[in-house]
Design goal:
The protein is an alpha+beta fold and 312 residues long. Helix 1 packs across helix 4, helix 4 runs parallel beside helix 9 and helix 9 crosses helix 10. The radius of gyration is 22 Å and the shape is globular.
């Protein structure tokens, strides 16, 4: 619990609810431990709000006590499940992330195209309302494959069903455990794509995934197989408007970047957002985004804009 608290409080020390919890830290953690030991613990309701990131997202925030517990659960479960995930799953994993996923896609494109000497088609898909559609009973089946301890299963089930227990579906965007549960759920898709469909060039970031092939017909066949698998095994579906076929030389739009044969460019919408929002406070963050692509020209525009702003 204390290790989970240490991990949780990073970057949150100025939050009022975190300070209130810390004021009686030992009492709060020992009480939480006692409730878990006696199985009297109950998850508190969530606080819901919206953020724009850049699209509108419905966030559900747990209280500090529950979030500390989420971190404790995550710390124990992550190494148990992470070892079974495929290499090319990049969301919310140590030494992975969106930038590594984009670089990996670039490597796949180069290999599939024979160093840009042959045509390659990319299939990009998105699961429709994924976090709202995760089936609790199906998720618990996957958890039970690796976890046998009944006390642990009791707690995991309690956390999963703390959100929309009446509907039996959905994970709250905002829980650190939701990120792990999402990977556990979609690991079934990863295994299906890699080992049943024998997809040589496949990678996934959260509910977005890409397959590469020289033959579009084979990718269309893969879409039909994946659609059937998701519906029958995971009770989720692909977003019909986000099943996209794209030739490599046209550029593959993925995670805010566009992968092309001889470069990686920033997505046009992302570039416009940076130019619209950049200021001296968020400049380091945006420069970090630009260093992962051919963004020298944009960097010059951003720097000139800030110099003009500072001179006023």
């Amino acid at each position: 619990m204390f290790l989970a608290w240490k991990e949780f409080k990073k970057g949150k020390k100025k939050k009022q609810d975190v300070q209130e919890f810390q004021f009686n830290l030992e009492d709060n953690l020992f009480q939480l431990h006692q409730e878990l030991k006696e199985k009297t613990y109950r998850h508190a309701p969530y606080t819901a709000f919206y953020i724009t990131d850049p699209k509108l997202r419905h966030i559900h925030k747990a209280c500090v006590r529950d979030r500390v517990l989420h971190h404790a659960i995550f710390r124990i479960l992550y190494p148990i499940f992470d070892e079974q995930f495929i290499f090319d799953s990049y969301s919310c994993r140590i030494n992975k992330g969106s930038h590594r996923a984009v670089r990996r896609l670039k490597v796949f494109c180069r290999k599939a195209s024979g160093n840009n000497s042959m045509g390659v088609v990319a299939l990009k898909c998105d699961v429709k309302k994924f976090f709202d559609s995760v089936d609790h009973s199906v998720l618990l089946q996957f958890v039970r494959k690796r976890i046998c301890n009944e006390d642990a299963l009791w707690l995991i089930e309690l956390v999963i069903k703390s959100f929309r227990a009446d509907k039996g579906v959905g994970l709250p965007i905002g829980n650190v455990t939701s990120q792990l549960f999402a990977n556990i759920y979609l690991n079934e898709l990863d295994n299906f794509a890699k080992y049943t469909l024998k997809a040589k060039y496949y990678l996934r970031y959260c509910d977005d995934f890409v397959l590469l092939n020289k033959n579009r017909t084979e990718l269309e066949w893969a879409v039909n197989k994946i659609t059937h698998f998701l519906g029958s095994n995971l009770k989720i579906s692909l977003h019909p408007n986000k099943i996209i076929f794209r030739k490599y030389h046209q550029g593959i739009d993925f995670l805010g970047y566009v992968v092309r044969p001889y470069c990686i460019n920033l997505r046009t919408k992302t570039k416009r957002r940076i130019l619209r929002r950049v200021n001296k406070n968020n400049l380091p963050s945006y420069l970090g985004v630009l260093k992962h692509c051919n963004g020298y020209k944009i960097q010059k525009i951003v720097s000139a804009k800030l110099e003009k702003y500072n001179s006023i």
